[in-house]
Every structure is written in C-alpha cells, then in structure tokens.
Amino acid sequence: MKPISINLTVPASWAELSDKQLRYIFSLFAMEFNADEIKALALLRFSGCKVIARHNGSSFLLKHGKQFFTIKALTLAEVLPQLGWLDELPPQPVRLAKIRRHRALAADFQGVPFEVFIVVENLFQGYLSTNDEALLVDLAKVLYPGLSGTLTASERVSVFYWVAALKQMLARRFADFFQPLAQDNNLLGSSPNIGAQLQESVDAQIRALTKGDITKEREILSLDTWRALTELNAQAKEFKQLNAQIHASK
Q1: Are 72 and 148 spatial neighbours (Cβ–Cβ below 8 Å)?
Q2: Could you report the per-residue pLDDT of 71-107, keeping only the tens digit for each?
Q3: What is the mean pLDDT of the chain?
Q4: What are φ and ψ of residue 145, in 5° steps?
Q5: Which of 79, 88, 158, 160 is deepest in the core (most CB within 10 A)?
C-alpha cells in the first residue's frame, strides 16, 4: 500500500472552539467518557476523520475526506496530549452563543448588571452545595434571557463550565476581594445554613458599595459587574493594607 501523508489540524485552546465544537465537547462530558476517550473522540471529530473499522484492537481504519488510512492506537494516544487543555477549566469563560435562539449574556460579564452577577453567584454556590441540577436550569434562564423549559445534559454542563471559568477568571482579576473562605464558612460545603450565609455575603457587599446609604442600593445593583467588583477589590485591598499597618505598629 502506498504511504500517504495527512495533516490533522485541531484547535489549540478552548478559545478556538466554535459553537458547534463546544456543543460536541460538552456532550462528551455529559456522557461521562473518561479524559482520554474525550480527547480521542475530539481529535477525530475536529480533524475531520471518521472511524470506519477497528483492527485487532490495536489500529483503526479512518476516513479523511476521500482518503482511507490506518492508524495505530498507540500513535493516536501519542497525539492526545495536544488536546490536554481539555482537562482544565477554560482560562477565559466560554459558552454556547445561543440556547434555542436565546442569546447569552457577555461571557466575561462585562456590561452585565451587578444584580445579575449576584443572582448567578447564589445559584452557582447553591448548586455546588446541593448538586441539584435544577439550579443549573435556573442559572441558564438568567444567563440566556427569555429561555424557558428544561435543558439537555450537555447544555447543563455548558452552563456549569461557563460560570466555573467565569469565577476562576474573576478570582484572578480581583484577587484582593475574592479571598478563600475560612473552613467554618465554606459555602461549597453542605452547611444547612448556606442560604443565610449567602444572604449575609450579598448584604455585606452591598453595604460596602453603598457605604451604608440605603438610598444608593438600586444604583449599586445596576452597576456594571466589573465596575462593582473593581470598587469592592479596592476596598478589600485598602482594608488589608490598614490591617498590615496596625499589626506592624504593635
């Protein structure tokens, strides 16, 4: 058989995935394939290959365009690290642009009202605490205004990945404000008082922004999320610096 050369091109990061590719990846996550299976299936799909047959468990007959070729399973395994970035949360939030014709909010929440961010934060923390997937559906209805009804498993996964990546990015950007919680106040645990804890956290944030002036609450809630978090981060940094000065003077 005459040897052939085929260049397989695949995305190099989460940011390069199209909406269709994102849907495919989230569907694989929803079907609970293991990490290597997901990368192998993604490699074949993204490179335009189709598995025609398997030979003795050690090689595959693939079709790429009009060409057929055989590839060893070991060779395929050696390529999988090129998709190793699928093992991690996206460094920048990614999401499906639409769910049933309903457009998503800005992926990074710039320009999104702070009030919406608070709702998303509470629903996400509630899901982490309870694993109640109904909360992911509620999240989707906030993230995709006008959306109603249920979600597919892959759509629920997509919502989780969006918010998890968003939180991770904001924690890096506003590191003074997003501090790790003390063990006894861990909102990710199974505390029966999580609702009260979340409400206390929200109230504290609003008090910090209004500086106790309740007439400004509506104005604060309508602020751009990034503007509100910038102010909260600055206040947190000033508080830490003041504490450091007090301890240094003792």
Answers
A1: no
A2: 777 777 888 888 999 999 999 999 999 999 999 999 9
A3: 81
A4: -50, 130
A5: 158
What average pLDDT does this structure show over 208-229? 74
Crossing angle (nearest 10°) for helices 194-210 and 225-249: 90
pTM of the model: 0.80
The answer to whether 93 and 108 have CB atoms below 8 angstroms apart is: yes
> Rounded CA gap, 99 and 59, in Å?
38
Residue with structure tokens 């003077």?
A: 249
Residue bearing tokens 């940011």 = 15
C-alpha 44/C-alpha 63 separation (Å) is 10
- Token readout for 8 is 């397989």
Three-state SS sequence of the chain? CCCCCCCCCCCCCHHHCCHHHHHHHHHHHHCCCCHHHHHHHHHHHHCCEEEEEEECCCEEEEEECCEEEEEEHHHHHHHHHHHHHHHCCCCCCCCCCEECCEECCCCCCCCCEHHHHHHHHHHHHHHHHHCCCHHHHHHHHHHCCCCCCCCCHHHHHHHHHHHHHHHHHHHHHCCCCCCCCCHHHCCCCCCCCHHHHHHHHHHHHHHHHHCCCHHHHHHHHCCEHHHHHHHHHHHHHHHHHHHHHHHHHC
